[in-house]
Amino acid sequence: MNAMSSQKGNTYLIVDLEATCTDAGEFPRHEMEIIEIGAVAVEGKALAQVGEFEAFVRPVRNPLLTEFCTRLTSITQAEVEAADPFPVVNDRFRAWVGGFASPVFCSWGNYDRNQFLQDCAHHRVPYPFPTDYHINIKARFAKRQGIGKSVGMKKALQLAGLPLEGTHHRGIDDARNMVRLMPYIFGQARLGRQKS
């Protein structure tokens, strides 16, 4: 985790969460808990990277990860058991967010925002961002590039001719990949002719 001094203007905080999950109904969706926060901060017209945050989180409602969750995310039981619980990690994340001028929460879709709201409510801790303003960069990518419907991050990378880097469904790696798509979301980059 590191944060660099903020500059004037908005800072886009590209955030990706991983959470407890199941494909066999072991627990309801409203009991999913964050197990990883991955975030990358970018600033200015050049969308220059100015910081990163990455932390595992120990779940308390369903402390044992399902086999599906471990297979999907590659996050192990040992990693979450060694981690701090959400209130502690959230405090560290809030401090990191607070190090930037006018931070704007961005994520691929609305899931990450909703999961933060759910975990903050359950643990009765403050929402980590200074306002509830959130940019769904999945929808913005589709609109900006005129592709009609929204697509997953992996498909967006393919459309942009960019290889997926790191491990898909790992918070920090997915956040870093989203940063690579930022020129197509907030900049002037345009997709070439692609098959959909």
Question: Which stretches are poorly predicted, pLDDT < 50 over at least 5 residues?
Answer: 1-8
Alpha carbon gap, first and last residue: 37 Å
Strand order of the largest sheet: 1-4-3-2-5-6
Overall structural class, as computed from helix and strand content, comes to alpha/beta
Number of strands: 6
What is the structure about, briefly put?
Pfam families: RNase_T (PF00929). The protein is 35% helix and 19% strand. The protein has 196 residues and is an alpha/beta fold.
Describe this structure in words.
It holds the Pfam family RNase_T. Keywords: Exonuclease, Hydrolase, Nuclease. The protein is an alpha/beta fold. The protein has 7 helices and 6 strands; from the N terminus they run E-E-E-E-H-H-H-E-H-E-H-H-H. The chain has a domain at 2-136: Ribonuclease H-like superfamily/Ribonuclease H (Nucleotidyltransferase, domain 5, 2-Layer Sandwich). The protein has a 6-stranded mixed sheet with strand order 1-4-3-2-5-6. Strand 3 and strand 4 (48-56) form a beta hairpin.
